[in-house]
Amino acid sequence: MLDKVPKSCVGTLSLRNHLNLLSNTQFTQSLFVCLRIKMTLVNEMSVKVKNILSKLNSMKSSSPTLEQVSKIQDELHSIDEKIRDGAVVEADGSISPGQGDLSDDLNDAHDIIADLLETLEE
Questions:
Q1: pTM
Q2: DSSP string over 23-84
Q3: CB burial class (10 A; 0-12, 13-18, 19+) of residue 112?
Q4: Backbone angles phi, psi at 84, to 5 degrees
Q5: Under DSSP, is residue 93 helix (H, G, I), strand (E, B) or coil?
Q6: pLDDT tens figures, 19-29
Q7: What residue spans define the domains of the chain?
Q8: Residue 116: CB partners within 8 Å, gap ≥ 6?
Q9: CB atoms < 10 A from the CB of 28, how many?
Q10: Which distant-in-sequence residues (6+ apart) come within 8 Å of 6 by Cβ?
Q11: What is the dihedral of CA 75, 81, 85, 90, to 10 degrees?
Q12: Which residues contact 45 (CB under 8 A, 6 or more apart)?
């Protein structure tokens, strides 16, 4: 895979794969810059939601506290606030592709949170 990546990006990939120094969001942003892909708000939000989904999925098999679940719920609400009329509008006024996937992931995350909160109430 590395043979298809520009040499300037190999350092970013190596850091992530071998040292785990970058968060998923930082890694994705760095890779997008290296590959000259426009990092849209939708891309950025999608990465954050996927990270949240990963945390939530691991919480399902543990015993999270109300505080832990509430913290992640707050993170989701901050993402929800950026959505206007069902879409994420970029700084230039455009609507980037990927809205449907982001919406699906957000719905999944909210469903998991609801399930976790219900379990905590019992």
A1: 0.68
A2: -HHHHHHHHHHHTT----HHHHHHHHHHHHHHHHHHHHTS---HHHHHHHHHHHHHHHTT-B
A3: buried
A4: -120, 125
A5: coil
A6: 344 455 556 65
A7: 1-38, 40-122
A8: 56, 59, 60, 64, 69
A9: 21
A10: 34, 35
A11: -90
A12: 79, 82, 88, 102
In what helix (H) or strand (E) does residue 19 lie, and over which residues does it extend? none
Six-digit token pair at 87?
A: 């879409």
Phi-psi region of 33 (alpha: psi -120 to 50; beta: other; left: phi over 0): alpha
Q: What is the pLDDT of residues 55-91, one digit of tens each?
A: 999 998 888 999 999 999 999 999 999 888 888 888 7
Token reading at 96: 């980037």
Task: Scan for tokens 């945390």, then name that residue.
Answer: 55
Which is nearest to 110 in space by CA: 87, 66, 79? 79
Which tokens go with 112?
A: 């998991």
